[in-house]
UniProtKB/TrEMBL annotation:
InterPro entries: CoA-transferase_III_domain, CoA-Trfase_fam_III, CoA-Trfase_III_dom3_sf, CoA-Trfase_III_dom_1_sf. GO terms for molecular function: CoA-transferase activity. PANTHER family: SUCCINATE--HYDROXYMETHYLGLUTARATE COA-TRANSFERASE. It holds the Pfam family CoA_transf_3. Keywords: Transferase. It comes from Prosthecodimorpha hirschii. This is CoA-transferase.
């Protein structure tokens, strides 16, 4: 499916790195025109941060950049050149949304703050995504995925009993919490503008956004005043609740027993009548009190089977269980993702066929067809000519003076 749900919506997109570009990619995937305003001298850091196809560096070869910028158009402008303002303002006048995820004051120093732009585009929707929001005692802090994970409590809630905090293993705020919250806010602002004719400024704090995804840890602190302890894969409410070793190298299966019926079903799967009959383990409270013994018994069973066999046996009795997958397994061996055509291959002029994640849903049974990410500056001339009406001579002059890169 080639979607045109958002056709006619245009972004002047100044975002870079992870969270910002992912939020605008959602719109380009659904038919909006997203003009990625970027520079060659100071490129998007994920363009030069890799991972690179075949390990060969190239400003157009980053898989991370490609995955976060599908369907966009790249306009290469030196924003620090004061002569770039006229062209940038001309693009913004023809746009519906201006987006950035810089720290407070960065866009203002470039003459691209909300107060500057609303004068030339009164119904503008302006998305700003700094770490802590645009004002307050910590607003000037620099934020990336790991530091946002730290200050939001995500790292404090992750780790093993008696040990220090751990990160979530990926920059979770960049890949989930912040881009989707930002996209929802922009959609709400577009609907508001359609109803009232008025634009608005969206000040999205990435810290506040990530806290919204913290779940039970925040809810428990609010309700009881207590902090959840770090328990690794264990649960303070259920046992067994963990990841168990299976036959083979680095092979694991997650098993969750949520109630007493699950426990009896798991014992039946393991063929352990004595464990099922043990009165000390018939209740959740009893199993929590004997969690070491419970986990040892489950581990003794899982070690003799493949992770897939453990999952299948548990699922057959209604016990929640899942193989601990690797990224490679997901891409190459997962039968469900393959059946649903989740992975899309998009041809790219420099890196060749590349595999990307599709939006995690189908529409009327069809997947969204992703369009390829842009080469840096690939659309500069066409955007200036077609959107702004610049002549070839004017474009050449802007390039000669260093406005265009």
């Amino acid at each position: 499916m080639t979607p045109d749900f958002l056709a006619g919506i245009r972004f002047a997109d100044f975002t870079w790195a992870g969270a910002g570009p992912f939020s605008t990619k959602i719109f380009s995937d659904f038919g909006a025109e997203v003009l990625k305003i970027e520079g060659v001298a100071r490129p998007d850091p994920v363009r030069v941060g890799g991972p690179f196809k075949d390990g060969v560096f190239g400003i157009n070869r980053s898989g991370y950049f490609a995955s976060r910028n599908t369907g966009k158009k790249s306009v290469a402008i030196n924003m620090k050149n004061p002569d770039s303002r006229e062209t940038l303002y001309a693009i913004i006048r023809q746009s519906d949304i201006v987006s950035n995820n810089f720290g407070p004051g960065a866009m203002e120093r470039l003459g691209l703050g909300y107060d500057d732009l609303v004068r030339i585009k009164p119904d503008l929707i302006y998305l700003s995504m700094p770490m802590y929001g645009e004002d307050g005692p910590l607003a000037g802090m620099t934020g990336v995925g790991m530091t946002i994970s730290a200050v939001t409590g995500l790292m404090a809630a992750t780790g093993y009993e008696g040990e220090g905090p751990l990160g979530p293993g990926t920059h979770f705020p960049d890949h989930a919490a912040n881009p989707y919250h930002a996209a929802f806010a922009v959609m709400a602002a577009l609907r508001h503008r359609r109803a009232t004719g008025r634009g608005m400024k969206i000040d999205l704090s990435q810290v506040e956004s990530t806290i919204n995804c913290m779940g039970l840890a925040v809810v428990e602190a609010a309700a009881t005043g207590r902090e959840q302890p770090r328990l690794g894969n264990r649960s303070p409410h259920h046992a067994p609740h963990g990841v168990f070793p299976c036959a083979g190298e680095d092979s694991w299966c997650a098993i969750t027993v949520l109630d007493d019926r699950h426990w009896q079903d798991l014992c039946a799967v393991m063929g352990d009548e004595a464990l099922a009959a043990d009165p000390a383990l018939k209740t959740e409270a009893g199993r929590l009190d004997s969690v070491d013994r419970v986990e040892a018994a489950v581990s003794a069973w899982t070690r003799g089977l493949s992770a897939e066999a453990v999952m299948a046996a548990c699922q057959a009795r209604g016990v929640p269980a899942g193989v601990v997958s690797t990224s490679r397994r997901l891409m190459q061996d997962d039968p469900q993702l393959r059946h649903r055509d989740y992975w899309q291959v998009v041809d790219h002029p420099e890196i060749g066929p590349a595999r990307f994640t599709a939006p995690p849903f189908r529409l009327d049974g069809e997947r969204i067809d992703l369009k390829r990410p842009p080469l840096i500056g690939e659309h500069t001339d066409s955007v200036l000519a077609d959107l702004l009406g610049y002549s070839p001579e004017r474009i050449a002059s802007l390039r000669a003076t260093g406005v265009l890169e």
